[in-house]
């Protein structure tokens, strides 16, 4: 895929001032942790959240930072915001960031399908981020994990159809849902009725279909996100994709069973080689010992683990595979930090001028 790009345009030679919006949530805390672990180059870091969470103290690089309430004043002077505070919060503060010339990398669904906003998985379509107009969107967690596997495979043959079933952990519903899974599990083990308040049903020794709102076609919002976001990221608007999303009693890390139809046969060995060489992917495909990826293998890890790659017995052009990835990490926080690293590295913090947008350039590698 070739898109227009622009020459590096940076704020200055100095590292950027960075803010994490939603810093006290599960993804926000992971963002702060990753900025430290990956030694992200920054001038200073602000931690922002709702007034209710203001005053919370979080560690960062040997210091303790105090969370501030987000406001026009606390956003002033910030070059880059990593946001994971929900769509309504992002929509509320994005115009303010725009007036300050601040780049927003947003983890909510607020801007993902906006045609003017790049929707980016760095290993797949990093070049599109260069055309931002002040906002870059982070995809849904299940979409990110899926596309890390699909992108290298579609280089072997064009995709025709994808059918995916997701097994989504409590972490996808936030830190409070993770805590609730622990408490409801204790309830059941002590012969008490589980008391769920965060999730619509108890996850303790149970599972349920994803409870996001249903569309008239019978698909839930989570399932439609996978379809629409995959089409946008892959620049394949005719991609046929059907998803079934399930919440399962796992604390952290999602799993997906994926059936892929190509326009011609793809040998299993070719698929294994492509996935073994793909950035952001670890191949765990031990057929001899029947050992394939599990959520416990990827919890706290950056890479998405892929395995059980096999020929689809029902279709000559089909492959089946299984994958697991940490929803909080690569499915959310890590993807956003990788985007931020690229924006700084290539000098893309400021939007390109109209003249620069008209200039064609080769696709950049992640």
How would you describe this protein?
- The structure is a single chain.
- The protein is α/β, with parallel strands linked by helices and 366 residues long.
- The protein has 2 domains: 17-139 and 331-357, Rossmann fold (3-Layer(aba) Sandwich); 143-327, Dihydrodipicolinate Reductase, domain 2.
- Helices cover 30% and strands 22% of the residues.
- The protein has helices at residues 26-37, 72-75, 87-100, 122-125, 141-153, 175-189, 221-234, 268-276, 295-298, 329-345, 354-357; strands at 17-21, 44-49, 57-60, 63-66, 68-69, 80-83, 103-106, 135-137, 159-168, 208-209, 240-247, 254-262, 281-283, 304-311, 318-325.
- The strands form 3 sheets. A 7-stranded mixed beta sheet has the order 10-11-9-12-15-14-13. Strands 5-2-1-6-7-8 form a 6-stranded parallel beta sheet, sandwiched between helices. It has a two-stranded antiparallel sheet with strand order 3-4.
- Helix 1 crosses helix 10.
Compose a concise summary of this entry.
By secondary structure, the chain is α/β, with parallel strands linked by helices.
List the helices and strands and how they pair.
Elements: E1 17-21, H1 26-37, E2 44-49, E3 57-60, E4 63-66, E5 68-69, H2 72-75, E6 80-83, H3 87-100, E7 103-106, H4 122-125, E8 135-137, H5 141-153, E9 159-168, H6 175-189, E10 208-209, H7 221-234, E11 240-247, E12 254-262, H8 268-276, E13 281-283, H9 295-298, E14 304-311, E15 318-325, H10 329-345, H11 354-357
Parallel strand pairs: 1-2, 1-6, 2-5, 6-7, 7-8, 9-11, 13-14
Antiparallel strand pairs: 3-4, 9-12, 10-11, 12-15, 14-15
